[in-house]
Design brief:
single chain, Rossmann fold, two-stranded antiparallel sheet, elongated
Length: 307
């Protein structure tokens, strides 16, 4: 990108961003707005109301650097260090997946389940003395940045939230997000391969998860398309689900079937997946937990409930 000592106005900077991103990003206009608003530390609405205001030298340099990185396919949250999820701005870095809008359906459905069950005990009487103030245990498996776990802690005050991830660096990001929203005392994190390290006394009533489901071939070819090249910059272990995208799901369902206390406590299960995988995923779940009935929530999210 040709550098210039001239200070750009907001209008000129946006125009420049659109020109450079047009061939590399399908959302080039929005991308330019987000990067510029982050560079000048003002909301996107500010760009319209103050489009003749000039950027400083440092703002211009940061904006142009981000444009160059975005041209290469680097996801915007890895440049700005944050991403919005369920109405809140979360910390994100290269150690965690970029939160996606499709995943918000898991939060919405979990909230709906808990609201419907407000007068119903999720737990055995010995662990839940009052049926009028149930305390469901919700487990976010493979929490990553913690956006699901923290969102649920904030939206469902009566729930106890636990979250697992085998990546220590991911758990550090999740813990930062919990502290940012003062939910650190509401979410308990475990370094764990799926459900392995969850204590028996915290066996969940609801499990939510966005497990790896991108196939090996899809990930191998991600660099060839503008709308998937961003996947190549994300932690591969949090994306790849093997040849059919279901490898991690097989281990996940096997753990549920093997852990007796989990089978006793579990009432609902919410999983994100590729819409093309739904039938195969439902069949796989039936092999391990046939007592649970599947239901489509959205094309990307399925729910299983105890019959």
């Amino acid at each position: 990108m040709k550098q210039s000592t001239k200070l750009l106005t907001i209008k000129e900077a946006l125009r420049e961003g659109v020109v450079y991103l047009r061939t590399s990003s399908p959302s080039f206009g929005v991308d330019a707005e987000i990067l510029l608003s982050e560079a000048i530390k003002n909301p996107r609405e500010f760009l319209i109301a103050h489009n003749e205001e000039k950027l400083t030298f440092n703002q211009t340099a940061k904006y142009r650097h981000w444009l160059m990185q975005r041209i290469k396919g680097v996801p915007i949250p890895y440049l700005t260090g944050n991403q919005y999820f369920y109405g809140r701005k979360f910390i994100v870095n290269k150690n965690v997946l970029v939160p996606r809008p499709e995943t918000e359906a898991i939060v919405e459905e979990c909230i709906r389940i808990c609201k419907q069950s407000i007068e119903v005990s999720f737990l055995p009487e010995s662990r839940n003395p009052s049926r009028h103030t149930p305390t469901p245990i919700i487990a976010d498996i493979g929490t990553g940045s913690g956006v699901i776990a923290v969102s649920l802690a904030l939206e469902i005050p009566k729930a106890k939230i636990i979250a697992t991830d085998k990546s220590g660096t991911a758990l550090k990001v999740a813990a930062r997000n919990a502290r940012k929203y003062r939910a650190a005392k509401r979410v308990t994190f475990f370094a764990s391969d799926l459900l392995n390290e969850i204590p028996t006394e915290l066996s969940p009533n609801i499990i939510v998860s966005n497990l790896p489901y991108v196939t090996t071939d899809e990930l191998r070819n991600a660099h060839t398309k503008p709308d998937t090249i961003g996947l190549t910059f994300e932690p591969q272990g949090a994306l790849e689900g093997g040849p059919d995208g279901l490898a991690v799901f097989r281990r996940f369902f096997a753990q549920i079937a093997r852990f007796e206390q989990t089978r006793k406590s579990l009432q609902h299960l919410l999983l994100e997946h590729n819409p093309k995988q739904r039938r195969a995923l439902w069949e796989l779940a039936h092999e391990f937990i046939p007592e649970f009935k599947p239901q489509e929530v959205t094309p990307f999210v399925s729910k299983w409930s105890l019959l």
